[in-house]
Amino acid sequence: MQPQLLSSLLLVMLLTGCNGSTATANSEAEPLMPVAEVAADTIQEQKMSDPVQSLPVANQATRAELTKRYAEIKAMIGEAKASELQQCRKVAFGYKACGGPSSYLIYSVAGLDEALLLQKVAEYNALEQAESQRLGLISDCAVVSEPGLILEGGVCKAGSAGDLY
Q1: Residue 154's domain spans which residues?
Q2: Number of folded domains in the chain?
């Protein structure tokens, strides 16, 4: 049963003395509607409402900007090639509505302007957070594990649990 429907039913039950009768303490007052009728009305209202219309509308310009920035970041990282594990790094990426990153990006500092990459990631994260808050989005609130790093075949990779893009 949906929370809104359940709340409506509980309220009606309290008002009717929990038995669904139409009797009231004051005989001059209008009788209360039986619980079954209120429930039917509530269900009908819920069927009539369009859930898509009640959702916030994403700003297409912001979505396009996030997509563009993501592509720039991924292009900067490239294949994350390295000759030793010490060149491998990770950075929190994205934003979950409950807080924390939605993922981690694995990259190599070999031949990369790390300061510029970190700046671009911070800007991306801030933009995604602002958009998420503007839209009132929610997330699963699961904590994304920070992955370990390994060097495999000359490429930096995640070595343990963690969500990657």
Answers
A1: 78-158
A2: 2
Q: What pLDDT shows up at residue 62?
A: 84
Are 163 and 102 within 8 A, CB to CB?
Answer: yes
Mark the ranges of the chain whose per-residue pLDDT is less than 70.
1-58, 161-165
pLDDT tens digits, one per residue of 128-152: 999 888 888 888 888 888 999 999 9
- pLDDT for 80: 97
50 and 83 fall within a common domain? no
Q: What are phi and psi of 27, to 5 degrees?
A: -70, -20
- Do 95 and 148 belong together in one domain? yes
Question: Is residue 71 assigned to a domain?
Answer: no
